[in-house]
Structures are given as C-alpha cells and as structure tokens.
Amino acid sequence: MSAKLPYARRALGAFVTAAAVSVPAAQAGEVEVLHWWTSGGEAEAVGTLRDLLESEGHTWKDFAVAGGAGDSAMTVLKSRAMSGNPPAAAQINGPEIQEWGELGLLANLDAVAEEGNWDELLPGVVADMMQHDGHYVAVPVNVHRVNWLWANPEVLADAGVEMPTTWDEMFSAGEALREAGYVPLAHGGQPWQDATIFESVVLSLGGADFYRDAFVELDEDSLKSDTMIESLSTFKRLRGLMDEGMPGRDWNLATGMVINGQAAMQIMGDWAKGEFTAADMQAGSDYLCAAVPGTEDAFTFNIDSFAMFKLDDEAAQQAQQTMARLVLEPEFQQTFNQIKGSIPPRTDLDMSAFDSCAQQSMADFQSSREASTLVPSFAHRMAMRSDVQGAFFDIITNYFNDESMSAEQAAERLAQAASLAF
Ligand code: GAL
Fold it and tell me: Which residue ranges have their beta carbon within 6 Å of ligand 1?
C-alpha cells in the first residue's frame, strides 16, 4: 500500500514513525479520546462510553474537536501524531484506518477481538475495514445510514404535500412549501454536507454499481458520463430549495430548522436522528424518515470506529483494551446507538427497543448486503483515500456555489482528479 501513498504522506509517515518512538507514557489507566461528537445528541451518546469506561476504574480524557464529519478532528490528529504525542484513542473511519496502520502507529487489538469473537459478530464488510495487514487495529462503534431524508410532518401537512418519493415530487413539494412560507430543504453549506447530498443523488440516478464504479473504483468514464452530469444537474437544482443562510451552517443547526418547523426537510445521515431524539421527538409521528428518493433499495454506510495508538505504559494499554472491549458489548451498543441514531455493527442484537427508523435501517442494511446495493459513503471517508476525497469535495462545493461552472465541466474535473490518484 505504501507505494500508492503520495510522496508527502510517505514523508509524513517517516517523520511520524521516528517521532513516535519517544511517545511519553500516558498516565496509568487513562485514555485520551479524540472524537468530533459535539452536537447535543452526539455528546450525550459518547458520554455513555465515558461512563462505562470510568465504571471499570479507568479515566476518560475527553478530546473533542468540533466540526461535522471530522475534517477538523483529522487535522488536529495529524499534528498531534507529528509531534510524537498522539491520543490513546481516536475516531478514525474507513480507509484512513489503513493509512494510519501503514504508518505503524496503531495498537494491535487481536486479543480483545478474539476474546469477544469479533470475527463471528461482525459482518465481513465491517470486520475487513477494522483490520490492517490481517490484524484488528480499530473497533466499530456503529453503522450510520447516509441516504436518508428527514421531514417535519406538520410542515408538510400545512403546505398540503407528502413525503416525496421521486425528485419530481421533491421539486413540486418544494414549490408548495416555499409558497406556504417554509424553507423546503434545510442545509448547511460546508463541503462535507454538499457531498453528503450529492452522493445520494448519484446513488439515486445511477444505482449501486454506478456509484461504486465512480466513487470506489474512481473509473474516469463513469465520472464524466451522462449519468454523472445528470446527477450534478439535479444536485444543483436542489440548491433552489435551500435558504440564503446556509453558508457555513453546522448540520445540527440545519436539523434544528426542521425540528422547530422553519424548514420542512433535510437530507442527512441518521446522526440527525440523534438531534430529533434529544429534542424528545418520536420517529414516525413527530418526525419522518425515508430513504432519499430513488435509493430505497440501497444503503450508503458510514461506520464510526475507534483506533488505538501504540503506547508504552501498561496501565494505559489496559485501559485501551478495556475500551475496545466495551464498545462491542451489548450494553453499550444498545444505549449508544439509540441515542446516536445509528444501528449496531453487530447484527445479533435485539432491535425491538429501537425506533422505527432504526429498525428500517437494520432491515435495509441486511437486504442491501444480500442485493449488493450496500455502498460506502464517500462523503464520510468510507470509499476513497483522503487526498482524493479532498479533491472531490473541492470540485463539488465549487460547482454547487459557482453559477458559471457547468455540470459537464465539474464531471470532467472529477475524472481528472481521479486520474491523478493512481
Ligand atoms: C459523520 C460521523 C457521524 C456524525 C457526523 C456529523 O462523519 O460518522 O458519527 O458525527 O459525521 O459530525
């Protein structure tokens, strides 16, 4: 894999590996945990892990870096690692686990995995992502579904529209909502939020195989195809359903607009459900969930996970192993995922206490695995290397905000960015 890493990353790797030798031993039994869960629902959810770890006698040192989708957190992590002082545990998702594994910085979790029978508990697609070079180096916390549409039913009813199931319905509902004085689609203009919507439009118009060709295989013909151009056009049309206050807005504030009835809908992963839950709203009555139009049979996954960094101190290592064990135990899985809006990554748990959206998510996760329509979210670090993802984010956001850039030009740029990736 190192041959594929760009020069800068290899250089960083050499530096970080050298620096890591002098990692100071962490205080006994303490785990410093880097994560980006700072919204109301997220903070409550991560608090359940802190409480469990502390109930086993260890100390949780919180290292929360605000910023949806973890872009800021990953920047901070790199600088901490470069200075030879990485946190004991960090939220690292998707192929980036491989990138950090390649640097030789991650602790081996095979013993905990074997004791907890992770190979049996976890679906292959999840287990593979947690391993580097055949060894477990990360533990999955949850499975989020990204291709969701959320709505406030009172607002829909007031405008006389129903939850849209096609893009045509979405645009005509948008007109009615606008006339009734609502923002049809709540959004925050940040690159990862733009990409979150865009990837669902591509899945909707192209289907799972096309999505994989474009965003996993980085196939240039797919990236500049008519289907991609049409997806880009539909994506930009959605801009007309948003409000002027969207630049820079955090995702949870956009969810708040749906909660307080200022906006009708939001396209967002099911961490948005954590906000509805924190506001004491019930799925199916106070708020609605549905797959993004045209993606009912598919599931875009986003798996949060914690990787542990190698430390010398034995007590700290013990605390890391305890945290890894707790994460997959039923107690944590049930409580955390109900608060967070996600589903457990292990598929053997009783889902009866979960709300109807989570139950739908679990059923669709299973059926999409069977139908090969389970795809990794590129907006959430699941599908491609971080440098390519960064280039895609730039192109998509520039296109979304720049009236002079055509869909054809944007598609051409995506294909060009992909060609530089090999
Ligand atoms: C995702 C992450 C979720 C949620 C969201 C908003 O990337 O997987 O757990 O935190 O970002 O920050």
Answer: 36-37, 42, 68-70, 144, 251, 271, 302, 304, 380
The model's pLDDT over 29-56, given as tens digits with 9 standing for 90+, comes to 999 999 999 999 999 999 999 999 999 9
Ligand 1 probe mutation, 33, 34, 35, 36, most atoms within 8 A of CB: 36
Model confidence, pTM:
0.93
Q: Ligand 1 center to residue 70 CA distance, Å?
A: 7
Give the Cα separation of 257 and 272 in Å (integer).
12
Which bin fits 245, alpha (ψ -120 to 50), beta or left (φ > 0)? alpha
DSSP 8-state code for residue 122: S
pLDDT tens digit string along 126-167?
A: 999 999 999 999 999 999 999 999 999 999 999 999 999 999
How far, in Å, from the CA of 68 to the mean position of ligand 1? 6
* pLDDT tens-place string over residues 253-276: 999 999 999 999 999 999 999 999
CB 360 within 8 A of CB 196: no
Q: Which domains are present in the chain?
A: 7-144+302-356 (3.40.190.10), 148-300+373-419 (3.40.190.10)
